[in-house]
Amino acid sequence: MACPPAAACHLLEECLVHGHDIATATGRPWPIGRDHALLAVEAFLVPLIAALPPTAFVNQEKAGTFRARIELRLRGGGRTLMILDGGSLTLDTGGR
Predict the structure, then answer these.
(1) Count of CB atoms within 10 A of residue 38's CB?
(2) Whole-angstrom Cα distance, residue 92 to residue 59?
(3) What are the structural domain ranges in the chain?
(4) CA–CA separation, 53 vs 89, rounded Å?
(5) Is the pTM of this model over 0.85?
(6) What SS3 state is found at 56?
(7) Which candidate, 39, 37, 47, places its Cα nearest to that of 1?
């Protein structure tokens, strides 16, 4: 995951998130373009979640035996299936 494209997409994601925070605080619009959203999610967030241990984003005590499958599709992007099973979060990106 330590590659220049992922690092660049991480910086983009940080700018989008914190730019939105500043815009909200100042009452200004902060439109996020589709291409930027796709890069932030598909080239940074999804690989980050996939690279970390399956328990990294899940509170083990609260998750218990809870199970869920969520399909994430962003317009113009691919498909990511998020699988939460017994305190473990795994991703299936459909081979992209």
Answers:
(1) 16
(2) 21
(3) 4-92
(4) 8
(5) no
(6) coil
(7) 47
Q: For residues 59 and 2, give the distance between their C-alpha atoms in angstroms, rounded to a whole number.
A: 26
Q: Are strands 79-85 and 88-92 parallel, antiparallel or unpaired?
A: antiparallel
Residue 73 tokens, joined: 């599709």
- Distance separating alpha carbons of residues 38 and 44, to the nearest angstrom: 9
- Give the integer Cα–Cα distance in Å for 24 and 20: 6
pLDDT per residue as tens, the chain (96 positions): 456 788 899 999 999 999 999 999 999 999 999 999 999 999 999 999 999 999 999 998 888 899 999 999 988 999 999 999 989 999 998 755
Residue reference for tokens 């989008």: 16
Asked whether the beta carbons of 58 and 89 are under 8 A apart, the reply is yes
